[in-house]
Amino acid sequence: MGANAQTSVPAFTAGQVLTAAQVTQINTGIPVFATSTERDAAFGGSGEKTLAEGQMAYLEDTNETQYYDGSSWAAVSAGGLVVVKAETAFSAVSSVTADGVFTSDYTNYRLVINYTTSTTGNIGIRLRASASSAATNYNVQRLELGDTSFNTGRDVSQTSFRAFIYSNGAYESAGYVDVFKPQLATPTNFLLLDNSSLGGFTTPYLVYRLGNHSTATAYDGIELLTESGTMTGSYTIYGYAK
To answer: Using 50, 70 and 90 to split pLDDT, how confident is the model at 23?
Structure first.
């Protein structure tokens, strides 16, 4: 935790003599917590402030300022994209997972990725619930452009959403995928744009993919996994502000 982080929001009583540490805690302004878990545990206990509408909080793990609206926490934002999973690096792995990123705070999400792959295996996506990945019912429509020729196709009833195309070497690739309503018990839709370099930076390759996960289940997480080989890079997940 950072220097300003705290694990409780105290409620003082009349005549109570405050320590220097307690005064310092007050002077930090908006209470700072390492994660939402510490935030939720900081209110309502013995000697703690009761959580009420208008309460503010700052989360270190997502660099997000929030307010309590009387029933749930919401991000303080003028609109646009709000970080729900800070940029996370990965190196020479076959999969990465992010759990607890899809919540009722947002309806739609965007994942942005920079990556390379070690082979010609694409990077797939699976949705996750309670730390378990769903491995059925993904459907994809593909449109790809290399040089002046189009490559199209459809993949149905797959074990993952075939997402980002391979780079097959050190040529940096990048893309994003919008994920629509993953946290609701309805089918989840995907819309993806990817810019890869299959054989070098002078041969960029455009990939446009859309599709769905047709199972009507609520998910809270996501997995990125390679079809073969490993991947190296970083990703960030954002929520679309309501």
So the answer is: low
Q: Which residue has the tokens 């995907």?
A: 190
β-pairing, 56-59 with 32-33?
A: parallel
Inter-residue contact 223 to 96 (CB < 8 Å): yes
pLDDT tens readout for residues 156-214: 999 999 999 998 888 889 999 999 999 999 999 999 999 998 877 888 899 999 999 99
Tell me how crowded residue 123 is: count the other CB atoms within 10 A of its CB: 26
Tokens 């994003």 belong to 176
Q: Which fold has domain 81-240?
A: Jelly Rolls (2.60.120)
Domain spans in the chain, listed from the N-terminal domain onward? 20-75, 81-240
CB contact burial 142-166 (16+ within 10 A = b; e otherwise): bebebeeeeeeeeeeebebbbbbbb
